[in-house]
């Protein structure tokens, strides 16, 4: 059996005869579970014309009140709903798309969805196939059956019969109308044959009506609402004189002939830009943040707009946000940019609540940027002088003696002689110049102090074997680390 479609169960349709009185139907509302063809208690309309009779009847009966069941949407079943019903009555099968109805009626998508829901709740439409909205696939429109609610049959005394006992209840057909409902159904037939068109926009009272002031050879008819109307000359006489009805514009309104007048642009588009609303400003700030901040690259712009909604509504710019992030402090490692931004911007609009405070934060951020830029320049200049400038001799006397001995060995080796003699002489010189424990301690302390200042010349100026013997493995390893760090732009050295 079909589920009930109204709040109250209607009386049987066979109780109304040709001479019986018309019954008063209850308040009409079809719940969502009964908005399908298989669960509807109405009957399928034979054609769009008879269905439009039920639509016009429901629009004038007042039985269905949308605001009784929801707090938003249209307030009544009116002319706009009838216009959408006219479009549906022309479709066979009735499978309208939302965009199609928007294009034909000029309404918004939300308005079309509201009115379709109203017709389903009123029992005029029933789902045959419900549309789908699957991401990545084209949307499928819903297919409806044009239904006549049982309240319409009750109100007009319409008799229906089920010709096939095995067929479902919604296949009932009309067999007759009560005497009391024939005048009403005749009026509904006239309404169904007419088209309900979109209302025209109201014209301004300052603009002349169509056909006004068409020339000097025209006569004036009776004025309506203090407005002069001119009609073409016709056969017969007129009550007023033709001279009094001539509409001649003043000479100040005549064109000078110098050129065509250009229409004025709206104020919002006078400078070529549209004025953004609240949501537009949020998205504008989000797009600028994703471009300016490296750790926000690739983040969703709508998500960033929602995170930065408070500062955007307070009139912040991307520069103001950078100034606040400098004061707040940024993280060195970022896993989720939108989450970090939400934490950093928490309460920012209450702390920097005036333009002067935001300007001060921006000034501090710019000073820090300038200081960092100068520091990078000084580092690059010092690095260039270290590698491209002249070599500075070590300041320690012990190191100077060692260096002189090394250069003397090189000069003697380059001067010629037998290799054994050179090795013997070099071994004697090395044995004679070998520093004692006190000198080694002084050399290593001096080298450690130089390494603390970032200077590695004392260790790197010697060959690897001599440097290991004099300074030890720890200081030589540290000097190599500093030398490799000098070649990287990601490391900065100072006092440590």
Number of E-type strands: 7
- The amount of helix comes to 40-55%
The order of strands across the largest sheet is 1-3-2
Distance between the termini: 88 Å
Whole-number average pLDDT?
76
Number of helices: 19
Unreliable stretches covering 5 or more consecutive residues? 1-21, 210-246, 428-432
How large is the radius of gyration? 47 Å
Number of domains: 3
Element order: H for helix, E for strand: EHHHHEEHEEHEEHHHHHHHHHHHHH
The main β sheet shows up as: 3 strands, antiparallel
Which overall shape is indicated by the principal axes computed on the Cα atoms?
Answer: rod-shaped
- Bin the strand percentage: 5-15%
Q: How does the helix and strand content classify structurally?
A: mainly alpha
SSE blueprint and pairings:
Blueprint: E1 43-44, H1 48-61, H2 79-89, H3 98-105, H4 109-121, E2 125-129, E3 143-148, H5 150-156, E4 158-161, E5 173-177, H6 182-193, E6 219-220, E7 230-231, H7 278-292, H8 301-307, H9 309-313, H10 318-328, H11 337-344, H12 348-351, H13 355-388, H14 397-414, H15 419-432, H16 437-452, H17 457-460, H18 464-471, H19 473-486
Antiparallel strand pairs: 1-3, 2-3, 4-5, 6-7
Could you walk me through the main structural features you see in this protein, from its secondary elements to its overall organization?
The chain is mainly alpha-helical and 496 residues long. α1 packs antiparallel against α2, α2 crosses α4 and α18 crosses α19 (473-486). It has three domains: 13-193, no CATH class; 278-361; 397-486, no CATH class. The protein is 45% helix and 5% strand. The chain is rod-shaped and about 135 Å long. It is built from 19 helices and seven strands.
């Amino acid at each position: 059996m079909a589920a009930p479609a109204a709040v109250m169960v209607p009386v049987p349709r066979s109780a109304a005869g040709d001479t019986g009185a018309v019954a008063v139907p209850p308040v009409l509302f079809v719940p969502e579970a009964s908005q399908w063809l298989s669960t509807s208690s109405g009957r399928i309309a034979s054609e769009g014309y008879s269905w439009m009779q039920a639509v016009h009847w429901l629009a004038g009966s007042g039985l269905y009140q949308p605001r009784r069941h929801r707090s938003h949407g249209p307030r009544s079943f009116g002319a706009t709903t009838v216009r959408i019903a006219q479009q549906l009555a022309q479709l066979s099968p009735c499978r309208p798309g939302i965009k199609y109805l928007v294009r034909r009626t000029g309404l918004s998508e939300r308005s079309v969805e509201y009115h379709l829901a109203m017709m389903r709740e009123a029992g005029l439409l029933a789902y045959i196939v419900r549309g789908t909205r699957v991401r990545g696939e084209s949307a499928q429109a819903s297919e409806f059956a044009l239904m006549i609610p049982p309240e319409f049959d009750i109100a007009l005394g319409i008799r229906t019969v089920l010709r096939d006992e095995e067929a479902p209840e919604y296949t009932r057909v009309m067999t007759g109308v009560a005497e009391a409902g024939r005048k009403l159904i005749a009026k509904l037939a006239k309404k169904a044959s007419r088209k309900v068109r979109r209302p025209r926009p109201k014209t301004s009272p300052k603009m002349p009506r169509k056909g006004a002031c068409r020339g000097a050879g025209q006569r004036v008819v009776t004025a309506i609402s203090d407005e002069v109307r001119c009609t073409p000359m016709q056969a017969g006489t007129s009550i007023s004189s033709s001279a009094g009805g001539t509409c001649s514009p003043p000479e100040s309104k005549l064109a000078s002939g110098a050129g065509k007048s250009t229409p004025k642009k709206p104020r919002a588009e006078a400078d070529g830009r549209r004025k953004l609303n609240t949501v537009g400003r949020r998205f504008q700030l989000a797009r600028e943040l994703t471009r300016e901040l490296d750790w926000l690259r690739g983040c969703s712009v709508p998500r960033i707009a929602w995170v930065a909604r408070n500062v955007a509504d307070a009139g912040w710019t991307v520069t103001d946000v950078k100034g606040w992030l400098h004061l707040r402090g940024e993280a060195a490692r970022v896993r989720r940019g939108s989450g970090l931004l939400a934490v950093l911007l928490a309460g920012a609009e209450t702390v920097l609540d005036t333009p002067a405070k935001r300007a001060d934060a921006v000034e501090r951020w710019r000073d820090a940027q300038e200081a960092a830029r100068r520091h990078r320049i000084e580092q690059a200049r010092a690095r260039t002088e270290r590698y491209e400038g002249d070599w500075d001799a070590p300041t320690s006397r012990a190191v100077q003696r060692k260096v002189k001995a090394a250069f003397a060995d090189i000069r003697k080796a380059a001067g010629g002689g037998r290799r054994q003699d050179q090795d013997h002489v070099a071994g004697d010189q090395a044995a004679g110049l070998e520093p004692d424990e006190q000198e080694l301690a002084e050399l290593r302390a001096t080298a450690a102090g130089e390494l603390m200042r970032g200077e590695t010349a004392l260790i790197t100026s010697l060959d690897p074997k001599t440097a290991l013997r004099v300074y030890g493995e720890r200081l030589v390893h540290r000097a190599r680390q500093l030398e490799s760090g000098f070649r990287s732009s990601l490391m900065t050295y100072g006092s440590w």
